[in-house]
Amino acid sequence: MRFAPDREQQDMADTLRDLLADADTAKIARAWAGGETAAWWQVWRELAEVGVTGLTVPQEHGGLELGAVELALCLEQFGYAALPGPLVESLAFLPRLLPGSSWLAELAEGRAIGTAIVAGHLPHALDADQAGAVFRCDGDGVRRLGGIRLQQHESFDPARRLFSVEHTTAEPVEADFDSAFDRGVLGCAAYLFGLGRRLLDISTEYVKQRHQFGRPVGEFQAVKHHLANVLLKLEFVRPLIRGACLSIDGPRGSRDVSAAKIAAGEAAQTAARTALQVHGAIGYTAEHDLHLWLTKATALRTSWGTPAWHRRRVATALSTDPTPIGT
């Protein structure tokens, strides 16, 4: 197995990271939370120009039809930048759910985004007021909702704008739900991994600048230990995500994406807790940009399946197939 990205994959990730760094995603996230969406849509159009919006869309609908490795690399960069919006839904879930849908052409061209309600996991539609298509996935199958009326709900992460959806029509569509759900879980894990990496970088930079007793707090052994623990957890996440990318279409794919999601959520939570500790009181203020990463890490830890749900899934899989995860 090859766990490291090749040169083209790494170049793609680097290009995306530079694009997002130039976009001031912290400012975009604050505007998005307040309902000001113009700056976000400008970034989405720029992403379309480099092919990211059609990353996993079939070529017949104008997409690149790339695989899970490229998907995870891109969502990791989105997490690093804390870019809001239904990115997991639009880039990971829906292209796999609806491979034959002509609507995917709008997505690939950067003219639309989509969102979904998934029974048992996503009770509200993320950013449904901006979505060109809203889908509901439950025991009755997959349906595209029409004639919708939205009611926004309070969210722990203000940039994750959650809506309940009333509708007058529900058109059944052919879909591959199980495979699409695993893509969504993988995408969420990769996004969390990116969040954790950024939280570690923010914390490391801060402890170099903050002084106590005449020296940077980063020189204190206890602070070094906390940051080293975060780095260790993140380094364990990386091969789990890469392994899940390679096994996702096989018989152990569901187990491996769940393992990656568990580890990514725990690592991001540890990174968030450590970031709060090293920043002190300023880390609790909503005015500090750190807040954008903290709230998102907490919210996504239980999105696309709670840790307990994924642990049960892994345990059930191991009870029938004890092959080590990632092999």
Automatic annotation (TrEMBL):
Its cofactor is FAD. GO terms for molecular function: acyl-CoA dehydrogenase activity; flavin adenine dinucleotide binding. Residues 7-84 form the Acyl-CoA dehydrogenase/oxidase N-terminal domain. Residues 180-318 form the Acyl-CoA dehydrogenase/oxidase C-terminal domain. This is Acyl-CoA dehydrogenase. Belongs to the acyl-CoA dehydrogenase family. Keywords: FAD, Flavoprotein, Oxidoreductase. InterPro entries: AcylCo_DH-like_C, AcylCo_DH/oxidase_C, AcylCoA_DH/ox_N, AcylCoA_DH/ox_N_sf, AcylCoA_DH/oxidase_NM_dom_sf. It comes from Saccharopolyspora antimicrobica. Gene3D superfamilies: Acyl-CoA dehydrogenase/oxidase, N-terminal domain (1.10.540.10), Butyryl-CoA Dehydrogenase, subunit A, domain 3 (1.20.140.10).
